[in-house]
Amino acid sequence: MDPTTIYSIAPLVIIFAIMYFLMIRPQQQRMKQLRQMVESVRRGDVVVTAGGILGKVVKVPQKDDPEITVEIADNVQVKVIKSTISEVRAKTQPVEAKSGDKG
């Protein structure tokens, strides 16, 4: 290869490297974090769906089941596909420590 070709390709390679480290790699890391949060969602966690609905997880299915049951209002439960969860807002106390239980 002659030097002219190398000098004309070098800026493209540098631009691609900058784009990779500033845009593509951080997005992949965020997606990996979200996937881990969704897989580890537990009963009592507050989640936000892709449609913007806030709800508390009341039933987490087995690993292979793609649906979870979310309570969006008092006595209003809906089934939500796990992949539509966009955020796990807060972790709550374990299931055994209910606030209404005494003793």
Could you walk me through the main structural features you see in this protein, from its secondary elements to its overall organization?
This protein has 103 residues and is of the alpha+beta class. Helices cover 36% and strands 28% of the residues. The chain contains one helix and five strands. The chain has one helix at residues 3-39, and strands at 46-49, 54-59, 67-73, 76-81, 85-90. It has a five-stranded antiparallel β-sheet. Strand 3 and strand 4 form a beta hairpin. The longest helix has 37 residues, at 3-39. The N and C termini lie far apart (80 Å). The model has no long low-confidence stretch (mean pLDDT 84).
Uncertain segments are none
Task: Kindly report how far apart the N and C termini lie.
Answer: 80 Å
The amount of helix comes to 25-40%
Shape: rod-shaped
Average pLDDT over all residues = 84
Strand tally: 5
Structural class: alpha+beta
Helix count, DSSP H or I runs of 4 or more residues: 1
In what range is the share of β-strand residues?
25-35%
Strand order of the largest sheet: 4-3-2-1-5
What value does the Rg take, in angstroms?
22 Å
The H-and-E topology, N to C, reads as HEEEEE
**Largest beta sheet, briefly?**
5 strands, antiparallel
